Amino acid sequence: MTVAAESAASLVQSVDWAAIAPPTITAAVGLLVLVADLFVRENRKQLLGWISIAGLALALLALLPLREGDRSTFCLTSDAAVCSYTADYFTLVIQLLVLGGALLTALLSLTETKKLPAGEFWFLLLSSAAGAALLPASRDLATLVVALEVASLPAFALVGLKRGDRLSSEAALKFFLSSVTATAVMLLGVSFVYATTGTLHLTEIATRLDDVPAQLDTLAKAGVALTLVGFAFKTAAVPFHFWVPDTYVGAPLPVAAYLSVVGKAVGFTGLILVTVVAFPSYADVWGPAIAVLAALTMTVGNVAALRQSATRAYSAVRLLAWSSVAQAGYLLVPIAAAAYSSDDQIGSTVAYALMYAVVNLGAFAVAALVARTNPLNRIADYRGLYATHPLAALALGFFLLCLAGLPPGIIGLFAKVTVFSAAVDAGLGWLAVIMAVNVVIALYYYLQWTTALFRAPAGAEDGDAPDSRTDAPGARIKHAVPMPVTVAITLTAVAGIALSGAPQLVLRFATGDLFQ
Q1: CB burial class (10 A; 0-12, 13-18, 19+) of residue 164?
Q2: Given Cys at both, which of 151, 153, 381, 513 links 132, Cβ 3.0 to 4.6 Å?
Q3: Measured between alpha carbons, how far is residue 494 from residues 102, 397, 409, 499 in Å?
Q4: Nearest-CA neighbor of 325 among 273, 369, 226, 259?
Q5: The pLDDT of residue 182 is above 60
């Protein structure tokens, strides 16, 4: 063999197709749906939705061969231990979360797409899900940024897909402009890190940051800080949260649910990878910063949620949006704790994210049901929901109690205790106190909404018939619940109840102890 042939052979990389199957299947089905849209008649567009759901289910099944973890591909030919794609247990759990969240979003979207361009919607949703599934496996900054943008760019279009809707267009523009700015700042930080270390692979960055020349130390710290800003935006951490309420209100409800769970998971996954894997040497920089962000985020989110008026248009969605910001603050606590103790604290964030994904998607599913007869989606519109849709009211009450951390929502209580313990174990007593105060604040608005579900409908207290106008608070017409919405509510409720019966399974699953 000639020298040239040997050199060419050394550049050939073997591809572990099983490892990359989940994001690959999702992307391939997205392309299939886009092409199929050209040939499917208008009255059969719902077929595209079922193809998308089948594709996401297949991607979830592709996770089964990866349950042992520790599979890598796209590695350096000079060092097989340095890879760009790693399917370890952390990757498996996050891919399960994002693909499962996308699947439930797809179920909720089956009825919504009758008002939206179906082909574009399903292609954008699957494209975003493919990027979200790729991100946790990314082990170099280039792949990480590409995955982040693949997950984010389709989301802008999904938010603004309601043609002719001013709120939707405004929400998409705010989301796009603020996200592009955050991405530009993050790319500047990545360039600083690369200039300091000469590599983009996370493990190599960690090694080289251990011994940065004194003249490059400031550049390295600036790179670390600027990189974190981009991911702080994706997690909706204060002060990078301003896009959340308007975006959730303007977006179709299933898209708002998707952003609240999958979009947030993408941001937190990226934040974990860059802090714990790439920047452990600068824990003294990002640890205090994330701790302060956590305190600000949970406080601002809860106070803003507390101020929502029950009769204001879209107040239910706004409350869920601000609640999402507050929950982001709780999710940041274990990441900050990892800077002061050990990487094991990250399991608390993953466990909390799993719990939050289940109950928040369930809450949005019930909100989608109520929005069918009360499009303004006010909190007052939920008054007396038990009288017309008792099972949906019971489910929403359970989801809200889980978010509040109260029985019978044991899984929510367990998740909050786990995060609280992470802060205490790391010596962040002040942060644990702030978290405890915020949990008490959140109890008020969660319980206020819960009690409204079981009150008499508006007008019924005086013996009058409830107002049947759809623009009156509390008004609704009893009708059949669409099957996909019923399935979404049932799946999330059953999962929440099952996990409340054995909440320790979530933490063991998140940390990989369940299969050891």
Answers
A1: exposed
A2: 151
A3: 18, 14, 12, 8
A4: 259
A5: yes
**Residue 226 is encoded by which pair of tokens?**
């600027």
Phi, psi values for residue 183, rounded to 5°: -65, -40
**Rounded to 5 degrees, what are φ and ψ at 471?**
-100, 5
**What is the distance of C-alpha 245 from the center of its chain?**
15
Q: Is the pLDDT of residue 6 over 70?
A: no
Instruction: Read off the pLDDT of each residue in 366-382 and give the average, rounded to a whole number.
Output: 87
Give the list of residues 6+ apart from residue 332 with CB closer than 8 angstroms, or none: 235, 237, 290, 291, 293, 294, 297, 349
Of 65-69, 190-194, 283-287, the range with the lowest mean pLDDT is: 65-69
Q: How many CB atoms lie within 10 A of CB 4?
A: 8
**Residue 137 clears pLDDT 60, i.e. is over it:** yes
Burial class (CB in 10 A: 0-12, 13-18, 19+), 455: middle
**At 396, which amino acid appears?**
L
d(CA 275, CA 117): 39
Rg, Å, the chain Cα set: 23
The model's pTM = 0.89
pLDDT tens digits along 233-263:
888 888 888 888 888 988 888 999 999 888 8
